[in-house]
């Protein structure tokens, strides 16, 4: 990164730090004036807008920009927790910055978390619900594919230095992206079927997989297999259809439903029928909710079918 860009970044961060400090020690606003939180949020939005402009202008420096964005986001979260004279965060507030902005929520049905963005979805079904959900999740922050791979192996799926293949259960020891010949990234929605551009690096449908299992799955549809030519860890493949092991079936189904709504894609009828069964057989668990929270903090959108599993039954055709 050249000196000019470094200077711009230092200036941006410096201005935001000043704004954060000012917001923390500012007196309470008079009636009718913007609150501390309102001012801080507007400054944060301006910072992200200017940072995105730089990212688009200098794509080679994306990793540095991304780290800076994470740092400033942490500052923003901390500033939001602390009001003028506050020592601890109010217990009425939830854990994620998006909850406090009223833009997205961890569960969507917790009244103590603030404004529920899913309120607008109440009573909707079919195409109307699908359209409403699309509007809620369509403006994510693309992290870039290299960064997405790093995040999958170093944060989202790394437990005490180990990463588990979602298809076979095989574990490897790693602190970052391993050799692609050993374990790599599975696009639950295949790249050849539309997972390109921002969709290619959308963390909601990316998972770590054994290289052989990933290669076998390829772009084949998901479904039930009765006569496998390959089988490992509960997953099966018959040359045409890939059956996911029970522990990952629901996660896989909800990732596909998310992708179909987010990117306006269609799932073949036979595959959709299997995915609907998997969604019920393997319900949302704590690990999947935690992953949803972490992804929101990274790319600023959520998978609504994790927050509200009942939405699947309210959409008759994906």
TrEMBL record:
Compositionally biased spans, kind Basic and acidic residues: 96-110
Recorded GO MF terms: hydrolase activity; nuclease activity
Keyword presence, Hydrolase: yes
Keyword annotations: Hydrolase, Nuclease, Signal
Pfam families: Endonuclease_1
Extent of the signal sequence: 1-26
Cross-referenced InterPro entries: Endonuclease-I (IPR007346), His-Me_finger_sf (IPR044925)
Region Disordered: start-end pairs: 77-112
Keyword Mitochondrion: no
Record-given protein name: Extracellular ribonuclease
Organism the protein comes from: Candidatus Ozemobacter sibiricus
